[in-house]
Amino acid sequence: MIDKLILGRYIPRDSYVHRMDARAKLLLSIAYIAIIFLAGNWEGYLVMAIFTIGVIHLTNIPLKVYIKGVKPLIWLISFTVVLQMLFSTTGVVWFHLGPINITNDGVVNGAYVFIRFVLIIMMSTILTLTTQPLAVADAIEYLLMPLRKVKFPVYEIALMLSIALRFVPTLMDETEKIMNAQRARGVDFANGNVFQRMKAVVPLLIPLFTSSMKRAIELGDAMEARGYRGGEGRTKYRILKWHMRDTWAVVAYVVLVVVLIGLKYYLPVGI
Amino acid sequence: MSKIIDVQHLSFQYPSSDVKALDDISFSVEAGEWVAIIGHNGSGKSTLAKLLNRLLVTDTGDMTVAGLAVNDENTWDIREKVGMVFQNPDNQFVGATVADDVAFGMENRGVERESMIKRVDDALAEVQMSEFADREPVRLSGGQKQRVAIAGVIAVTPEILILDEATSMLDPQGRREVIKVIRDLKARMGDALTVLSITHDIDEAASADHILVINDGQIVEKGTPAEVFGNGPELIKLGLDVPFAEQLKAELRQLGVSVPAEYLDEEGMVKWLWQSSFNK
C-alpha cells in the first residue's frame, strides 16, 4: 500500500540536496510555493521549470520518480485546468458552445495552472525524497522555537511528532496483521457497497484503537522509567548543522526571485 | 555487603480489583546480586517491579532502593539509579533510530552532547549492536530491540537493572542473545550492578544467584536455583516450568530409574547419565 505512494517517502542517496540542512530544505520548499506566483509569463515559467529540473538533477534521483509522484494527482490537476479553461471570459474566443467560451487567455491560464501544479508537487517531492522524516520533524521543531515566547509547547509537539513518525511503520504492520486475522475469521474488506465496507472496517479499527491505548500506556511507563520529565532541561542527541551549501541554496533562490521579478515587470516594457 | 533493595511488609491493590496484587511481601537484595523473581501470570511480579521505581504507588509497606526511601521526593533520584527493560520490545522504543533510543535516557538527564555520542557508541558496542546504530526499529528483530533497550539503560549507568519479563516476547534465539548480553554485562560490572529479573524463562532464572517464587501476591519460596528447582513437582503445581534436566529426571523416575534427588543443571545431568550407564 505505502509503496505506491511516492509523496512522503525517503530515498537514501548521497547527493548535494541530501546533504543539505533539513531546515533549509523545508524553508526553501515553502518559499518556492510563494515564488512560483511571481512567474507571470512564459519566460518566467520556463525559468522556474529549468530551475526545478536543475534541482531534481542535483538530487541524484531519476526524473521518472518525480513524474510518478505527480501521477496520483493528475485528475485533480486536469480538473482545475479544465475549469480554468471553461470559465475564462477574457481574450479572443476560439470556440463557442452555449454559455461556454474557450478563449486564448483561458487556454494560456490553464497551461500556467498545469505547470504551476506540476512544479509545486515536484518541489515538495524533492523535500520528502531527500530528507528523513525525522530530520523534517527536527526542522519543524527548530522553526517553531520562536513560538515558545507565547507559551506554545514546542518540545512536546516535537516529541509527539517524532514518536508518531516512529510508530507509523509499526502501526502499519499491526493493521496488516489485524486485517489478515479478521479475514481469516471471515471478514470481507474488499467487496460490498459503501455501507457494508464501512461496517467491515469496524473489526479493524476497534482492535487497532485499543492496542494503541495499550501501547501508549506502556510507552509512557517506559519513558518515565527512563527519566523523562517533560521538555525543559533536556539536551539533544541529534542536531541540525547549517553548511555553506545551504547558504548557496538560499543565494540561488534570491537570484531566482530577482530574475523572475525582472521578467515579470521589466520584460514587457522592453519588447 | 549492603542491602540495595529492602522491602518490608509491602501490599498493593489495584483500584479496579478487589484482590491484593501483592500481599505483605518482605524481601531484600544484596548489592551485586542477581535475583530472579518467578511466578505464573497474574502473580504480581510486574506490579512489584513497577512499585520499585514508583511507576505505581502504594501506601502500605516500606521500601528502600539504592539507599533511598521510595517516596514522592525521591522518585526521580530512584529512577536515576534503576534501569528498567520492559516486556514489549516495540512499546518501549522511544527513539526513531537505534542511536536516538539509546540517547533518550541521557537526553532526559541533560548530558552534554559530546559525551552522549561517546556513551551511545560504547553502550551499543557492549550489546553488539554498533552496526545497527542508524536503523529504524521496524527493521530490527525483537531480540535486537531488547538489546537496544538494554544499551539505553547501560548508557545511564544504573546501579540496579530490572528486567520485567524482558525475554518473554522473544523467540529462543533472541532470548539467548539477550540473556548472554546480560550475563556479559554482569560479569563486567560485577558488584556495581544488581540485576532483578522478573521472568517466566527458566534459563534466565537459572543464571541468577537467588530465586524468589511469587504466587498470588505472596512469596512462597526463596533460595538458590538449585534449592528452588530441586522442588520440581512443587513448581509445576504453581504453574511454572522446571529446567530441562528436571523434566528429564521426572520422566526417568516414571520409567523406574532411580535418579539423584538434588538439582542438577544440564551438564551435571549429562555427567550423571554418563556415569550411571558405565556402572551398568
Number of domains of chain A: 2
Q: CATH class of the largest domain in chain B, anyone?
A: Alpha Beta
Q: Assembly type of the shown chains?
A: heterodimer
Order of strands across the widest beta sheet of chain B? 6-7-8-3-9-10
**What is the average of the pLDDT values of chain B?**
87
CATH fold-level assignment of the largest domain in chain B? Rossmann fold
- Helix % of chain B is 40-55%
According to DSSP, the number of beta strands of chain A is: 2
Task: Describe the model.
The complex is a heterodimer of chains A (271) and B (280). Chain A is mainly alpha-helical. Chain A folds into two domains: 17-131 and 241-266, no CATH class; 153-226, no CATH class. In chain A, 66% of the residues lie in helices and 3% in strands. Chain A has ten helices and two strands; from the N terminus they run ααααββαααααα. Chain A has a two-stranded antiparallel ribbon. Chain A is globular and about 70 Å long. The model of chain A has no long low-confidence stretch (mean pLDDT 86). Chain B is of the alpha/beta class. In chain B, α3 (98-108) crosses α4 and α3 (98-108) runs parallel beside α5 (142-154). In chain B, the strands form two sheets. Chain B has a six-stranded mixed sheet with strand order 6-7-8-3-9-10, with helices on both faces. Chain B has helices at 45-52, 75-81, 98-108, 113-126, 142-154, 172-189, 202-206, 225-230, 232-237, 244-254, 266-279; strands at 3-12, 22-30, 34-38, 62-65, 68-69, 82-85, 160-164, 194-199, 210-215, 218-223. Chain B has eleven helices and ten strands. Chain B has two domains: 3-231, Rossmann fold; 243-279, no CATH class. Chain A: Transmembrane (T) component of an energy-coupling factor (ECF) ABC-transporter complex. Unlike classic ABC transporters this ECF transporter provides the energy necessary to transport a number of different substrates. Chain A: Belongs to the energy-coupling factor EcfT family.
